[in-house]
């Protein structure tokens, strides 16, 4: 399309649709005659009719809206367009006989993209319509690009999380090749940890730490709690009876062996990896006890990281209800009683209280992932 000043205007391959809203048939004829050679044109003689048109599936790319109309005026139509999420982004040019600067300022302040006064100057009308349609195309393209990029980012994040999950489980399963515990132990303890963290999150001592992200990372990190057992000799790790004092000292080193291994992995990472930090905490401190009688550092109370306090109870409960080479399994109720007896001694009192309240959920998790059932990677 060539404008009267000799400049060439952009004409899209597919004609764009304009909606002209004016109560005067004469004005509609004039505007339609100017625009029809270049665009698809729809018309409405009232604000009510215009709103019905734009709410249909075939929405216009641009609206030329008369301000002074009987019944619903242009400002009222514009207000309803902006209130509807489906139509709020359609650009609107006010077309009116009100040629005062105050009227123009008001039209632009309420959100119109342009303001054209009557009588219409054809060159001005075509140029401004063309400009606004090009701007709309650019906005639409950017929005589509942003949507695509957001989808790509979400996809890559999901892939990264899956890689992390698979990597964690691979390491945990490697430890299992030397440890008599089963893959279902990983599933069960993950379930217990998540259950405890959700139950603790609204308690004052835990609210600042246990947000959704922390709980997700904590649950993901839990399978690495005993990764250090790969460094314990088979004669000790799989001994079918009580360990002597010297053997027990060697067994206790698995906590530091695990945290040291994860620490080395952290150092190799170009940037900090949050779940590795939590995994290192859990591996190192999950055998600490509330009263200070645990290992490897003999920490007491809240000096023990929250992640490890939660893991401690989950790990002990699962050990109690599971068969081991050195002991038979206990019933859920027997394990519960032992945990309760360890309140404020072995375990954080609040963690025990949540465990007691959620005991039925612990039983469900244990039943769902009992040893001998087939497990699949998520």
- Strand order across the largest sheet: 2-1-3-4-5
CATH topology of the largest domain: Hypothetical protein af1432
Largest sheet, in brief, is: 5 strands, parallel
Mean pLDDT: 86
Helix coverage percent = 40-55%
Count of strand segments: 5
Anisotropy-based shape: elongated
Question: Which stretches are low in confidence, meaning pLDDT under 50 for 5 or more residues running?
Answer: 1-12, 374-378
What amount of the residues lies in strands?
Answer: 5-15%
Sketch the topology as an H/E string, one letter per element: EHEHEHEHEHHHHHHHHHHH
Gyration radius (Cα, Å) is 35 Å
Into how many domains do the coordinates divide?
2
Structural class: alpha/beta
Overview of this protein structure:
By secondary structure, this protein is of the alpha/beta class. The chain folds into 2 domains: 17-147, Rossmann fold (3-Layer(aba) Sandwich), CATH 3.40.50.2300; 177-368, Hypothetical protein af1432. It contains 15 helices and 5 strands. The protein has helices spanning 25-35, 47-54, 74-83, 101-110, 122-176, 183-200, 212-221, 234-237, 245-252, 254-268, 274-285, 306-321, 332-341, 349-357, 359-368, and strands at 17-21, 40-44, 62-66, 92-96, 114-117. A 5-stranded parallel beta sheet has the order 2-1-3-4-5, with helices on both faces. α3 links the parallel β3 (62-66) and β4. The model is unreliable at 1-12 and 374-378 (pLDDT under 50).
